[in-house]
Amino acid sequence: xxxxxxxxxxxxxxxxxxxxxxxxxxxxxxxxxxxxxxxxxxxxxxxxxxxxxxxxxxxxxxxxxxxxxxxxxxxxxxxxxxxxxxxxxxxxxxxxxxxxxxxxxxxxxxxxxxxxxxxxxxxxxxxxxxxxxxxxxxxxxxxxxxxxxxxxxxxxxxxxxxxxxxxxxxxxxxxxxxxxxxxxxxxxxxxxxxxxxxxxxxxxxxxxxxxxxxxxxxxxxxxxxxxxxxxxxxxxxxxxx
Length: 241
Prior knowledge:
Blueprint: H1 11-16, H2 20-33, H3 48-57, E1 67-72, H4 80-86, E2 90-96, H5 99-112, E3 117-121, E4 133-139, H6 144-151, E5 155-165, H7 169-175, H8 177-182, E6 189-193, E7 202-208, H9 217-222, H10 225-229
Parallel strand pairs: 1-2, 1-4, 2-3, 4-5
Antiparallel strand pairs: 5-7, 6-7
């Protein structure tokens, strides 16, 4: 396996600041177990720093220092674990529907000693009315027209969606305007977030929930009898970490 070109780069500790020990530990866990546990592909191991960890940190400047931040579709913990390390005074909820991934997330939280994290197994649409977030993050989850439906209802009015996106960010934002307006979302801002000198910047989509909008039909159903029978199971690992 080729070496990660950023391994040992002295700019990394400076970039992550006080979060460096936790982020480095997370990198090592991903490097050692990510492929085995189906969290990253074999080609990703040699570019964990640039493609995943430094990339995840790009959302942090757009997030509040305190309050509740929900990482939707947290998966391997990107960007949620990085956010938790870099925003220690915020409460981070890692929301993920797959049990094997919530098990992984709980192990990471416990190993790294992240006391500001709660791992929650479930789907975003089933958490409407249960979670109220000051910010929601998402990375490689879905196109914005779908992502709005899963994330905007979780935000308190005034809260912000911060989504990592690729080159189609502007096009997706234009295609999702009506969905965003219906759910109370304001105008989407596309920001180019720098990473490290010499690395490609990444696109971040910012949408503030300006009003309550309309709760999606699926979310209304999940809060009734059906929702009570399908209440997502919380992970028992890492609770209170």
